């Protein structure tokens, strides 16, 4: 009886643990794993199990923190009695949306699991997931890295269609070292996207590029870009496109 009272206020109660098969996933692919539900010190009635897939980021315009629910995942509404110390396993799978910005400096993702317990405080679990770029964007990020750019900041911009724009900022360390202070890219992540369109900006001297508005307004070297599907198919062609684009812009500065 005493254990039941303690369990009702969250002491010695049942626990939930989401165990992912892999801590990383590519945007547009499947996440798999299983839940381990462990009974506490008293018998308890379980009423269901649900999960939220959450995003944390920095807003590219206001610089405020973003806490957004990407998906609500209903795992089970099965009601059952969980005996003290009993262990149950529940399979888990989730299709990661392909239009998500990848995990980065400010952008993080996690699953928030909720075990619904009758007449007691629900049990929770938080598990972070590293989201890699969607396939069509992977070569873009690798090309930037091979050009010797070091990422210094990134932010997200929620769009009306529930997708996101992303602002990325880099400093040159090799190819363009001392040629300019910073380069920024802004583009929108869309479903079934094959090409990449957006805006890039070159900062010739140190300036405050900490949000999307200053990114667009503070410099003259701001232009649109379009990388077609064929170019994005490999790192070398993407790197060549970006290098030529930047050199051309510098030549006209």
UniProtKB/TrEMBL annotation:
Superkingdom assignment: Bacteria
InterPro entries in alphabetical order: Arrestin-like_C, Spore_0_M
Name of the protein this chain belongs to: Sporulation-control protein
Provenance organism: Croceifilum oryzae
Pfam families (UniProt xref): Spo0M
């Amino acid at each position: 009886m005493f254990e039941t009272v303690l369990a009702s206020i969250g002491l010695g109660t049942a626990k939930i643990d989401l165990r992912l098969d892999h801590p990383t996933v590519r945007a547009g692919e499947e996440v798999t794993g299983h839940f381990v539900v462990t009974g506490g010190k008293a018998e308890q009635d379980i009423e269901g199990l649900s999960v939220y897939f959450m995003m944390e980021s920095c807003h590219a315009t206001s610089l405020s923190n973003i806490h957004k629910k990407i998906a609500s995942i209903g795992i089970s509404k099965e009601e059952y009695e969980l005996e003290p110390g009993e262990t149950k396993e529940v399979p888990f799978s989730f299709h990661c949306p392909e239009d998500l910005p990848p995990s980065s400096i400010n952008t993080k993702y996690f699953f928030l699991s909720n075990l619904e317990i009758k007449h007691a405080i629900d049990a929770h679990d938080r598990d972070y997931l590293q989201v890699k770029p969607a396939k069509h964007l992977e070569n873009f990020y690798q090309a930037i890295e091979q050009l010797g750019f070091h990422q210094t900041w990134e932010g997200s911009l929620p769009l009306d269609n529930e997708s996101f724009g992303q602002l990325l900022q880099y400093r040159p360390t090799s190819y363009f070292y001392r040629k300019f202070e910073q380069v920024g890219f802004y583009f929108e992540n869309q479903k079934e996207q094959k090409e990449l369109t957006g805006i890039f900006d070159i900062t010739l001297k140190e300036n405050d590029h900490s949000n999307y508005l200053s990114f667009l307004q503070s410099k003259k070297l701001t232009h649109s870009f379009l990388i077609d599907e064929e170019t994005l198919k490999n790192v070398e062609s993407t790197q060549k496109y970006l290098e030529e684009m930047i050199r051309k812009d510098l030549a006209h500065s």
